[in-house]
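Posting for a labmate who doesn't have an account.
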Amino acid sequence: MCGRFAFYSPLDATAELFGVENNLDVRARYNIAPTQDVVAVKVNMVDETELVTFRWGLVPSWAKGSGGGSRLINARSETVAEKPSFRDAYQQRRCVIFADGYYEWKTEGGFKTPFFISAADGRPFGFAGLWESWRSPDSDRNLQTATIITAPANTFLSRLHHRMPVSVEPENAQRWLLGGVSVLGEIIANPLQFCAWPVDHRIGNPRNDRPDLIEPKGALI
């Protein structure tokens, strides 16, 4: 799964890397948690890519309330095209969520150690995501939310967890946003090269959001 991640690269440079104009003012984040805002690229109504923020945790358009989004932070690649919560978004509302890395907890000998996982080349990358727009029946409130697609972990990442977020390199962003149903499998089959290292347990508290959270507390793997 993917339950915490970081995005701290300069937004202007990252937007340029993904071929989209930056129209946002956001700060560096080192401990993004569910229900918080994430930065993403989506295709708008006139088929142009634009930079937006979504609340992390998808709320389907047909949901009776907005409170269930915290349970839908991830969508399994194996069932994303079929499950009612995701299938419409999979066909029509894809996004790429910006990231510099994510956290995973490895359990060994009864102890959990958090690891930070980043692209081996150090570049920011994206998560393959889906987004939805939910309108409150009692007001004009329009809530836009997103989820991150996950897949079975590859050989390297399986050392930490049995699943991994589906990663999208900048040059593949358009393929994910506009591609057909087969593109997800193609992206999963060609994941980024990652590296990982243990970090401080303070990452477990979402109120902690500082650069030193990603400092190595052990050897690189």
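Reply:
Got it, the structure tokens are right above this. The longest helix spans residues 11-17.
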